[in-house]
């Protein structure tokens, strides 16, 4: 009898850990039933550093996630679809950009609300975008720029 009780308790603990893991994975990938959110799109020159499930933040608070990324064959820009909480109304002149959490941190998508009185409709597009900035290319410009400045000085 004691062995079967121990087995039931151990099995329950394993089952609880599995459920907790599934909930964690669902939250970290941005998976939700879709209730209480709407989607908007944006075209970026580069979406380097983000993927499906990446956080979408407004004033540092997570308000959604990236739900789709695709290449536009006409413009060769990356089209991103983001899901935003239903209670977050974005003005039509809002901006969207890819930001970094720091030198060693990951990237996230940041929403910057505009001042227009009209709001973006579900399925609408945010036109003011700024893609990912490559830290390596910035360092190369800095190193290249400082090297050429030194050689130009007599």
TrEMBL record:
<feature type="domain" description="Mce/MlaD">
    <location>
        <begin position="37"/>
        <end position="114"/>
    </location>
</feature>
<dbReference type="InterPro" id="IPR052336">
    <property type="entry name" value="MlaD_Phospholipid_Transporter"/>
</dbReference>
<dbReference type="InterPro" id="IPR030970">
    <property type="entry name" value="ABC_MlaD"/>
</dbReference>
<dbReference type="Pfam" id="PF02470">
    <property type="entry name" value="MlaD"/>
</dbReference>
<dbReference type="InterPro" id="IPR003399">
    <property type="entry name" value="Mce/MlaD"/>
</dbReference>
<protein>
    <submittedName>
        <fullName>Outer membrane lipid asymmetry maintenance protein MlaD</fullName>
    </submittedName>
</protein>
<dbReference type="GO" id="GO:0015914">
    <property type="term" value="P:phospholipid transport"/>
</dbReference>
């Amino acid at each position: 009898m004691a062995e079967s009780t121990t087995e039931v308790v151990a099995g329950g603990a394993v089952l609880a850990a599995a459920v907790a893991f599934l909930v964690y994975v669902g939250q970290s990938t941005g998976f939700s039933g879709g209730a209480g959110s709407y989607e908007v799109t944006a075209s970026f020159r580069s979406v380097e550093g983000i993927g499906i499930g990446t956080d979408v933040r407004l004033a540092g608070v997570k308000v959604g996630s990236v739900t789709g990324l695709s290449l536009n064959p006409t413009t060769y820009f990356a089209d991103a679809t983001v899901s935003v909480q239903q209670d977050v109304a974005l003005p039509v002149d809002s901006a969207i950009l890819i930001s970094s959490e720091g030198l060693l941190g990951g990237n996230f998508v940041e929403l910057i609300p505009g001042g227009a009185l009209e709001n973006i409709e579900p399925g609408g597009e945010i036109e003011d975008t700024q893609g990912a900035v490559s830290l390596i290319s910035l360092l190369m410009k800095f190193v290249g720029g400082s090297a050429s400045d030194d050689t130009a000085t007599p």
